Amino acid sequence: MLGQDLTAALARDGATAVAADRAALDITDTDRVREAFAAHRPAVVVNCAAWTAVDDAESREDAALRVNGTGPAVLAAACRAHGTVLLQVSTDYVFAGDAGSPYAEDAPTAPRSAYGRTKLAGERAVLETLPDTGYVVRTAWLYGAGGANFVRTMIRLEGVKDTVDVVDDQHGQPTWTVDLADRLVRLGHAALDGTAPAGVYHGTSGGGTTWFGFAREIFRLLGADPARVRPTTSAAFARPAPRPACGVLTHGRFAAAGLDPIRDWRTALEEAFPALLAAERPLLSGRPG
After folding, report:
1. What Cα–Cα distance (Å) separates residue 96 from each residue in 44, 91, 131, 212, 232?
2. Mean pLDDT, rounded, for 133-154
3. Where do the domains of the chain lie, and which CATH numbers do they carry?
4. CA–CA distance, 98 with 230 (Å, rounded to integer)
5. Candidate list 115, 135, 143, 201, residue with the active-site label
6. What's the predicted TM-score (pTM) here?
7. What are phi and psi of 44, to 5 degrees?
8. Which of 55, 132, 171, 207: CA 20 to 30 A from 237?
């Protein structure tokens, strides 16, 4: 989902980009990564690859760690050898998720899930191996036209259910992959220009809401009655991995580097909505269009 929008953003930027899926490049395979670097000699690498099955990671942490921890370490070693900038996409799950206010980039990490632990391992590998050219961009609640996500799920459920129960005790920042892709391109340029120091950045939308508030806004954009979305608690949807009660992040380092943080989540969702609706509509039955 993010990789597709990043590839499109790079094309609009006029950059020469190589997009490699898992079949083309296993980032945990040191030899394959070395061969790819020798063939393409990239100035910037953006790692959009990740184990994102949060619940599955609880029972398969070693497998998740290989993708989320070993993979970035292999990429970082290759970047160090070639003098390449690395942008590593990470997550709010590296925090405990119990703060009473938004997390700054330098807030203490304390992941409570296997997914969060493995993503933190990837962050550390990048920052330790590439102290001057390693960038970690934490994001959260991603949605886009190119993959399964909460927005597309709500569009589908609105067409088949009278009411939908959605948790109202988890706070975060819905983030459009198109917006994040744009910031990754800008950060890559700033890294090459020397105007953005290496380290941690937060790439989430401005503002914040709950999954319940997010769902109601989706129903509103569909022209449906938002009251059909009913609030519930996380306890009603017990999952193997704990979800952060607070995943809201601050964006001070983007601003300090002279880069505008991502806009408010509502504004982005309204612009993104036609493409999301078009992506989901072929899957709907009994609806016009």
Report:
1. 31, 12, 25, 21, 22
2. 97
3. 2-148+173-207+248-263 (3.40.50.720)
4. 24
5. 115
6. 0.96
7. -135, 140
8. 207
